[in-house]
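User: Fold this; tokens only.

Assistant: Input:
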Amino acid sequence: MPQFDPANFLPQIAWLAVIFAVLYFAVVRPTLPKVGRVIDEREGRVASDLDAAESAKGEADAIRTRYDDGMAAAREAAQAEVVTARADAGRGIESRMKELAAVLDGQAADAAARLAITRDAARATLAATTTALTGEAIARLTGMNVPADEIEAALAAQK
């Protein structure tokens, strides 16, 4: 093989240097700055995108914090409203219970008074009926007429 002949090494190295120089100056030198600009542009775009993402994350965190604070405030306000409503309802129920207790106490007092009047009337009627029945029983059994005041005195002595 001629390429392995040591006499041909010098011309081969010369042609290698010439082809390398042509390729370097014809292809690499014109395209390398363009590739560098593209890489720099991409790095700049990535950096600006990262900055925008960081900024958006900060804004999102701020919005989330405001949202959480708003929800906490709304929750506290709602709980305060519930407590107030319960207290108002409790006071309303308490006042209504007092009114009902007063009405029921009045009705109980009226019923007790009517019961006392009815009881006294029943006792009076019972006493008169007992006296009359005792007088009739004595009259039928013995044939004697005993006056009502004597029968009442005798019944009173029995108690």
